[in-house]
Design a protein that fits this description.
The protein is an alpha+beta fold and about 60 residues long. The chain is built from two helices and three strands. InterPro entries: Tobamovirus_resist_UPF0261, UPF0261_C.
Length: about 60
């Protein structure tokens, strides 16, 4: 990541995976998220889609 800056090349650097929230096994997900879109990645990892507003909330300064 330093090479582009050293050469004066413009960069866009962003956080990744802001559209998902990681959980453990599907049976550990809190009931309040049961109606949300879930992706069972494997028996130990379940992903929950974030709401459209979530990524903007996590980038705001406190």
């Amino acid at each position: 990541m330093e090479a582009a800056a050293d050469l004066g090349i413009p960069e866009v650097i962003s956080l990744g995976a802001l559209d998902m929230v990681n959980f453990g096994p599907v049976d550990t997900i809190p009931e309040r998220y049961s109606s949300r879109t879930l992706h069972i990645h494997n028996p130990a990892v379940t992903l929950k889609r974030a709401t459209p507003k979530w990524p903007s909330l996590v980038t705001e300064s406190p």
